[in-house]
Amino acid sequence: MYKVKKDFTSTLHYTQSQTKLILLKKQIIKYKPLLISTLLISIFEMPRLVLTFTLACVKYKWQRYLYLVGYLISFLPLTTSLFIYIFPSPMYNKVFRSFIKTKLEKMRMIKSVESVL
User: Fold this and answer.
1) What is the pLDDT of residues 26-50, one digit of tens each?
2) N or C: which end of the chain has fewer CB within 10 A?
3) Does 11 reside within a domain?
4) Is residue 87 part of a domain?
5) Helical H runs in the chain?
6) Model pLDDT for residues 67-116, shown as the tens digit of each residue
7) DSSP code string of 47-76
8) Distance, CA of 33 to CA of 13 (rounded, Å)
């Protein structure tokens, strides 16, 4: 967010004719992948936060299981980082696709060599 603010303030000095709202829209479009990933992580962490405060004192057996499920849900952002960071970003998505393409080509080449042997 610091980078967005810094870029926003530096742009204000160069273009005095544009309004702040137009500049803000441009910055949001430019940094959309960063904003999306931050929002997704916040949403995925919400169940753990809620369950931590509501189940502070475990009195019943079912509360332990609910707390465990909430704790496991909190690991979703870590395990789904591919969907949170790579797919929304055009640059990372392009690199990811080329990486997958090269790996598939290598696998096909290995399979063809194995079939010959």
Assistant:
1) 888 888 877 887 887 788 777 777 7
2) C
3) no
4) yes
5) 2-14, 20-30, 32-54, 61-73, 76-79, 81, 90-116
6) 777 777 777 767 777 777 777 778 888 888 999 999 999 999 888 887 77
7) HHHHHHHHTSS--SHHHHHHHHHHHHHTTH
8) 25
